[in-house]
Amino acid sequence: MKFTDSPVIDLQVRDSCLSIQQDNASFHVGTSVWPCSLVLAKFAERWAPPSPPTTNDDKTPYSDLLDFHSRRRRAIELGTGCGAAGMAFHLLGLQDLILTDISPVMPALKHNLKRNKPVLGKNLKTSILYWNNRDQITAVNPPFDVVIAADVVYIEESVGHLVGAMEALVADDGVVLLGYQLRSPEADKVFWEMCEEVFVIEKVPHQDLHPDYAYEETDVYVFRKKKNKN
């Protein structure tokens, strides 16, 4: 697992290298680069088709899920933090992407977007989004084909807002890509109970994660809305 407590994290994504500055002394968890964002990003890098067209010989079990080239997909990230996962997904082909977090984290996110603009090639869109703020959710104009979230389950009180935001943001035929690590047993219990009411949940086999980023306590999940919750 290539994760350190150093002020800067370098994340190689195909032929590009992101340089992500973090502040582990901050009072906000969003100003640190958390392992799940790296695990999710490198899982996507491992399986995402490099560019269209994809031949049958190049097909993988995740080709359709992670094909961001053959059709334009609207995407949003919740709890973006320093931006590692979101920037990586952009480099893998997600062009129509909004990176969101709470207002105290925005300076760190915007700093890293500016820092990596030469690699990213453009300014990525950002938006302040509190999961319980319906006006902010409406303002980003859902639904989205892809919702990205990594290491966002750690406070029991916020779980209901998070699940509600995911449900409101993802399209009926869309997907939530979640990097997950247990942070709070209480939050964990509530989160999975609520998610099972709303989503069909698929856990990515651990052997399908990137071999250099297969942290033993971190998993990747794919959520899809249940067609009929009744």
From TrEMBL:
Identify the SUPFAM superfamilies for this entry: S-adenosyl-L-methionine-dependent methyltransferases
Is this entry keyworded Methyltransferase?
yes
Q: Which Pfam families match?
A: Methyltransf_16
**What's in the keyword line of the UniProt record?**
Methyltransferase, Transferase
Gene Ontology molecular function? protein methyltransferase activity
Could you give a single Gene Ontology term from the biological process aspect?
methylation
Superkingdom of the organism of origin:
Eukaryota
Q: What is this protein called?
A: S-adenosyl-L-methionine-dependent methyltransferases superfamily protein
The organism encoding this protein is Theobroma cacao (Cacao)
Q: What is the lineage of its organism?
A: Eukaryota, Viridiplantae, Streptophyta, Embryophyta, Tracheophyta
